Structure formats: C-alpha cells, structure tokens
Amino acid sequence: MISPDHVRLMAQYNRWQNRSLYGAANTLDEAARRADRGAFFKSIHTTLAHILWGDEAWMSRLAGRPFPDGKGLEADYLETRDWETLNRDRAAFDAWLIDWAAGLTTADIEPDLHWTSSTGKGRFVTPRWVCLTHLFNHQTHHRGQVHAMLTAAGAKPEDTDIPFMPDAPWK
Does residue 143 form part of some domain? Predict the structure, then answer.
C-alpha cells in the first residue's frame, strides 16, 4: 500500500512535469501541437487533454469533483478544448490536487472505492490506494508519449527523474 506522503510526492511531481511539458509545448505553434504524430491520441494537444480528462474523471470518483464533460478517449472530443483553456485548466487542477493531497491521511486511502468505468466495462470495487496509484501511473504513461512527441518536434522538456525535482520535500 502507498502512504499519504507518496500521494503528496506524486502530486508535486505531476505539477512539475506538467509545467515542463506545457512549457515546451508553448514553444511550438498551434499546428505543431495539433499535428498527428502517430501516438494513440494522435497529437501533443489531444494527449495532454486526455491526461487532464483522466485526472478529472478519477478525482470525481476519489474526491467528489464533477465528472468531466465529453469522452476522454475520443481524439475528436479532445480537440475541442483550446490551448489557452487547456493550460489554465491543467494549472488549476494541479494546484487543487496538491492542496487535496496535503490533507490526506492513511484512513482516507485505505477504504475500497465503488466506481463505474467510463469505458463501459462495468462497476468495480477497488482499494482507493490502487486507484491513486493508477492515477499517477496513467499520467506518467501518457506524459512519456508527449515527451517523445515534443522531442521529435524540436521542443525540449525538462528532466523527468523524481530525484531532480525542484522543491522536493527532502531538499
């Protein structure tokens, strides 16, 4: 099982990495961000939009936030959020996630979560700590895709290694 400190660390890492990727993506023009680069969600823009959609969906289950509109698995839907809004929404969500994680206790992450798949796979009962692990793993998986697309487009994201995270709690 993970600890509340692990959730806090990963929330901080999430914000650092999102700032890095969005900062690198901001050096590209709109056409470069929306170009189909052969990734699962096609473009830098739609992959970043999917990550945010997934975060919003999981935190609706875990923290009672509203479930996001639209279908986060459909690239056409993911194209609808404009770049400025995506940047703003990402930064606001990351700040909220850090604040939310700051108040977590072990008792908050131990119970089971009863949830319904947004992909139609049914209802599930899963320990909350497993769902939180998935939240952060899902982010990392797709951010790796974005990192590769940004690098191929000539943009330069920051390091991704947790030990190099600025403002880390152990520094």
Answer: yes
**Closest to 139 in 3D by CA, of 12, 4, 1, 3:** 12
Using alpha carbons, select from 17, 5, 27 the residue that is nearest to residue 52.
Answer: 17
How far is residue 9's CA from residue 98's CA, in Å, rounded to a whole number? 9
CA geometry: angle 85, 15, 12, nearest 5 deg: 150
**Residue pair 112/15 in contact by the 8 Å Cβ criterion:** no
Task: Give the 3-state secondary structure of residue 126.
Answer: strand
Q: Is residue 169 part of a domain?
A: no
131-153 pLDDT, tens digit per residue, is 999 999 999 999 999 999 999 99
pTM here?
0.94
User: Which segments are annotated as binding site for a divalent metal cation?
Assistant: 50, 138, 142
CATH number at residue 18: 1.20.120.450
Please say whether the dihedral angle defined by the alpha carbons of residues 101, 88, 147 and 131, taken in this order, is positive or negative.
positive
What is the count of structural domains for the chain?
A: 1
Q: Rounded to an integer, what distance in angstroms lies between the CA atom of residue 171 and that of residue 164?
A: 10
Domain hosting residue 159, numbered range: 4-164
